[in-house]
Amino acid sequence: FLLAAAASPTFCQFIGYEFDQATVYCAEVVAGGQISFTACEFTNSAAGVIFGAQADVIRLRLLKCVFENMTGNGIAAVAGAGYFNVVGCTFLTMGTVAGACLSIGAGVSADVYVAHNDMRNNAITISDGATSGARRQYIGNLYTVAPVVTEQAGVTVQTADGFFGIADASNANMTIGLTINQGAADNEILALKSSD
């Protein structure tokens, strides 16, 4: 199933659809477009939704969707920019070959917000290999294993067990708490100010 280029910004909304043995490719959507999936089911395919190479400056939203029995990634962001939101989704038996609930490739510069999803019982939850460009927030998701997130500025990860990381997804010396990774910066890591 391909959502392809249009002459003007595209708005597509799918509510309650079942995509069985089908992959939705969001490719070549014109800038300014918006694609939304609400309470949809994606089952028995190689991947559920692919945010494609030409999906430039669009908004992709997945709300309360179910992904089940995928042989690859539930959601794969291959390349592109824009806004990518995944909220309240459930991922069941993902990646029976080598997949993740959510996979983000190195060419993706989209702002990503992933919150309150159930990613338990999956070998790989989030694999974020992007190296530049955008903000990432992973908040309140349920994991069996910690997400695999490339350390980069703008990444926020909150796990169900109480770890909260900014620009870092793990800390071997911390079970519950806050970790801030400054990377190469050598200036202030925390400041509380009052201007009056």
Q: Could you name the ranges where pLDDT drops below 50 across 5 or more consecutive residues?
A: none
Instruction: Provide the β-strand percentage band.
Output: 35-45%
Shape from CA axes? globular
Structural class: mainly beta
Number of strands: 21
- Percentage of residues in helical conformation: under 10%
Characterize the biggest β-sheet.
10 strands, mixed
What is the averaged pLDDT score?
A: 77
Query: What is the alpha-carbon Rg in Å?
Result: 17 Å
**Total helical elements:** 0
H/E series:
EEEEEEEEEEEEEEEEEEEEE
Distance, first to last CA: 57 Å
Structure description:
By secondary structure, the protein is mostly beta strands. It is 0% helix and 45% strand. The strands form 3 sheets. Strands 2, 5, 8, 11, 14, 15, 17, 19, 20 and 21 form a 10-stranded mixed beta sheet that branches. It has a 7-stranded parallel beta sheet with strand order 1-4-7-10-13-16-18, with no helix packed on it. Strands 3-6-9-12 form a 4-stranded parallel beta sheet, with no helix packed on it. A hairpin with a 3-residue loop joins strand 19 and strand 20. The termini are far apart. The model has no long low-confidence stretch (mean pLDDT 77).
Which features would summarize this protein structure in a list?
196 residues, mainly beta, 10-stranded mixed β-sheet, 21 strands, globular
Summarize the structure.
Helices cover 0% and strands 45% of the residues.
List the helices and strands and how they pair.
Layout: E1 2-3, E2 11-15, E3 18-20, E4 24-26, E5 34-38, E6 41-43, E7 49-51, E8 58-63, E9 66-68, E10 75-80, E11 82-87, E12 90-92, E13 102-108, E14 111-115, E15 118-119, E16 126-128, E17 136-143, E18 148-149, E19 155-159, E20 163-166, E21 177-180
Parallel strand pairs: 1-4, 2-5, 3-6, 4-7, 5-8, 6-9, 7-10, 8-11, 9-12, 10-13, 11-14, 13-16, 14-17, 15-17, 16-18, 17-19, 20-21
Antiparallel strand pairs: 19-20
